Amino acid sequence: MAFRFFMLLICISFFSCKKEKNLVSTNIDKLVLIPIPDQIVEEDYGFLFDQETRVMSDTLPEVQAIATQFKSLLKQTPFPLILDNEVDENVVSFNIVSSDSIPSPEGYVLAINNKRLSLAGSTPTGVFRGMQTLLQVLPDALIAGKQIDSLVIPGLKIIDEPQYEYRGMMLDVARHFFTVDEVKRLIDQMALYKLNKLHLHLTDDQGWRIEIKSWPKLTEIGGSSSVRGERPGFYTQEDYKSIVAYAQSKFITVIPEIDMPGHTNAALASYPELNCNGKATKLYRGMRVGFSTLCVDKDITYAFVEDVIKEIAAMTPGTYIHLGGDESHVTSKKDYNIFLNKVFSIVKKYKKQVIGWEEIESAGVDSTYIVQHWQRTTTASRGLAQGAKVILSPAKRMYLDMKYTKKSPVGLTWAGTVEVDSAYIWKPSQIFKDVPPSQVLGIESPLWSETIKSSDDIEYLAFPRLIGHAELGWSKRKNYNWDSYKLRLNKHYNRMNILGINYYKSPVLKTKIKP
Ligand code: IFG
Fold it and tell me: What is the pTM of this model?
């Protein structure tokens, strides 16, 4: 006791004894990071939270929101985490730095040692992407919202940036409708794995799901049905704007698809005048494709398309509008090209750029277009040869509506069955290896909804394959392989349980894991 008193005297009289935080040595072997970061090195000591630990944040509101999210994550701990932009030690900081130090707009540096936990990006997007990694570094108990009394975060330095700029998922809300809340739930899950594009397939033969004020019957009639009539519905423009804003808050861009000239029965059933014969079709509740077309010869068709694109463009901050263009089996090639060229001009008039399924290349594309590869590399290659960019959705690897095995309770099998390993073991860079890498923007995982009608169904088909796709989209090829991913994914199941994700328990992962 006397000694301690003596030490205290020494401290008070001679030094400003900053309480040296005790050093806690940590290791990063147990961390489960997916997508795997580009560079990660271990530090000797971790960051120990205590009563004096502060939080510092850049003044940008989006960065402050990330700091607030971090603080709320630790609400079940005894640490006050007072906001304080003056301290330089014992602090958790969220900063914007120059693009000289972090060139990628989605890149970040996460540096954790005994003095500070610092997350930096050159944009709020980069800080947000890094926050997803930080979430995976935090212990499961914290993510589960359990009360914890002590917390040390493993010491590490991660320098990370994405391989591809386009890392997306498509949700078909036309065959079966999904509510705003179900879409927002999916957005939350996508954000955790650094995906940045949500392609919404808003219209098809079975349903028109987005309110167009100048053509109200599109949703009154076209939104009143679905596959087997199981899930009718539509988004008001307010609903759609709230989805767009919510996605934006997670730095995810919504890309709306109005599929045309095929896959248009819902519109043709809503307005007789859109049909060449002037008669409305019947609403369709089946699962066939390729039997519908807008009437290419009628002027009203282009007035309709322009009204739709005008209203969609006004609600879409993103650069792209997806025009579909797939499976127009009852539109002659000549008419298809005439139609698309007129519609391309309309999209440009509203200052947007065109994405379309690979077939649109026949109408003539250029470097301002994106063709989405899904079925024939030969078709997409013709688009690439014209200078278009490509996003990769090869059905045999990326179609999340393909069954895992023949026994899967939901899904289709026309492109084959796709187990968790098959979805992962392929090389995006090798699909079109003869074109400049800059023409390959990235990958997107389509989930068609003919056979699904709930968030559980979405999650069963999307997880874990979407997680593997997220790694293929984000991580550098040199940093991953199936064996390392399989180990990490096996350990990640516990986190998915905490997150309440209804994932498929693949037997592929149960096989003995090489140590
Ligand atoms: N192909 C159709 C989709 C959907 C899908 C189901 C594309 C581009 C089969 N078009 O994929 O509408 O029916 O797997």
Answer: 0.95
Q: Are residues 180 and 287 in the same domain?
A: yes
108: exposed, middle or buried (C-beta count within 10 Å: 0-12, 13-18, 19+)? buried
Give the position, in ligand 1's atom list, of the atom nearest the Cα of 401. Answer: 14
pLDDT along the chain (515 residues), means of 10: 61 50 87 98 96 97 97 96 95 98 98 98 98 97 95 97 98 98 98 98 98 98 98 98 98 98 98 98 98 98 98 97 98 98 98 98 98 98 98 98 98 98 98 96 98 98 98 97 96 96 91 52
| Residue 305 C-beta-side C-alpha neighbours within 13 Å | 30
Catalytic residue of the set 106, 161, 311, 327: 327
- For atom 3 of ligand 1, the residue with the nearest CA is 448
Largest CA distance in the chain: 102
Same domain as 116, residue 250 = no
Residue 401: both structure tokens together: 């509506």
Q: Are residues 187 and 109 located together in one domain of the fold?
A: no
Domain's final residue, options 117, 137, 160: 160
- Residue 187: domain span: 166-478
Structural domain contains residue 115: yes
- The pick from 175, 289, 444 for probing ligand 1's pocket by mutation, whose C-beta has the most ligand atoms within 8 angstroms, reads 289
Q: Which residue is closest in CA terms to ligand 1's atom 11?
A: 374
